[in-house]
């Protein structure tokens, strides 16, 4: 075999090998059906009660950490990410909110009753659609200065913008909400902007990297005796939650499997063990580059981003050792908050 042919074969094998590795890394890191025993499956009676009772607090999960709380009168939205650009769009083109999609979301989920949008931090997968929501609705947008600059990029009226005052309770109808300073998931090579801010109004379209973290917050929500904590990111401030007990915990698990065993244990001890919730609902586990119709089950993150099956199993195992119940929401159906 001559040298030229040997080089050609070697290069071809390398290319095929790289394609195989890339194909694997872009595959979902497991399937949500592996965890069917923990998936919420609403029955007809439950769904009917949730629609008919104005006293029943429900939540809908739209992926990442976008959560719609609804008590029949008022609504609160944690984060605002519906547009979900594809991975190729995110990497190679500026991203922007889809006004037509937001219009449909407002109609389909009666978002004209929305009192406020509260943003955990200002990365695009948490805040991309807040400017369009603020354009189409007279809703208050609550967040850091970075978050407010995303809204200002669409010239949202200043009287709609509310700068977070940590530990200062806000009232929205029967919802009492307190923002708690928090930490983002540890940085990665493509997500190494923690603590950086958006210092000027951010107009869309914009590169995903222009959506700086701008500080992170958890949200303590109190509603008619129920206590709920939403923690969007897999990061903590030590003992931040030690004096708080909640009924339901929405807990971010993005890249949990990528952290050291010591980090994983500490994270779960500082959240689930400390807060002692009755119910733990994982968030920020889905493939947010997959623009699925929202009536279909969400998919796990690809291997390139996380081993979601491992992250999910770690959370479930720890939750059950704490004698709490793990519930996985895979579609934006009304889940009755206990």
TrEMBL record:
Pfam families: Lactamase_B_2. Transmembrane segments: none annotated. It comes from the Bacteria. InterPro entries: Metallo-B-lactamas, RibonucZ/Hydroxyglut_hydro, UPF0173_UPF0282_UlaG_hydrolase. Coiled coil: none annotated. Residues 63-284 form the Metallo-beta-lactamase domain. Keywords: Hydrolase. This is MBL fold metallo-hydrolase. It comes from Acinetobacter chinensis. The lineage of its organism: Bacteria, Pseudomonadati, Pseudomonadota, Gammaproteobacteria, Moraxellales.
């Amino acid at each position: 075999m001559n040298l030229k042919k040997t080089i050609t074969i070697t290069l071809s094998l390398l290319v095929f090998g790289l394609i195989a590795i890339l194909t694997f890394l872009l595959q979902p890191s497991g399937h949500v059906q592996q965890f069917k025993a923990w998936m919420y499956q609403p029955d007809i009676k439950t769904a009917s009660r949730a629609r008919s009772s104005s006293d029943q607090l429900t939540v809908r999960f739209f992926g990442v950490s976008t959560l719609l709380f609804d008590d029949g009168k008022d609504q609160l939205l944690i984060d605002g990410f519906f547009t979900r650009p594809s991975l190729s769009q995110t990497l190679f083109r500026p991203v922007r909110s889809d006004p037509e999609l937001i219009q449909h979301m407002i109609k389909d989920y009666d978002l004209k009753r929305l009192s406020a949008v509260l943003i955990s931090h200002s990365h695009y997968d948490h805040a991309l659609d807040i400017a369009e929501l603020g354009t189409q609705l007279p809703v208050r947008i609550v967040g850091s200065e970075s978050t407010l600059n995303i809204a200002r990029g669409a010239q949202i009226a200043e009287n709609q913008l509310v700068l977070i005052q940590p530990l200062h309770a806000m009232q929205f109808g029967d919802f009492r909400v307190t923002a708690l300073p928090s930490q983002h998931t540890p940085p990665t090579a493509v997500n190494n902007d923690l603590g950086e801010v958006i210092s000027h109004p951010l107009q869309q379209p914009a590169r995903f990297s222009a959506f700086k973290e701008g500080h992170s917050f958890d949200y303590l929500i109190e509603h008619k005796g129920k206590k709920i904590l939403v923690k969007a990111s897999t990061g903590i401030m030590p003992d931040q939650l030690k004096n708080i007990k909640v009924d339901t915990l929405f807990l971010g698990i993005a890249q949990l499997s990528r952290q050291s065993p010591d980090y994983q244990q500490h994270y779960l001890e500082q959240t689930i063990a400390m807060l002692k919730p009755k119910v733990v609902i994982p968030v920020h586990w889905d493939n947010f580059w997959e623009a699925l119709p929202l009536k279909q089950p969400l998919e796990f993150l690809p291997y390139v981003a996380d081993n979601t099956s491992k992250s999910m199993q770690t959370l479930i195992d720890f939750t059950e050792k704490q004698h709490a119940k793990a519930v996985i929401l895979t579609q934006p159906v009304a889940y009755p908050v206990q």
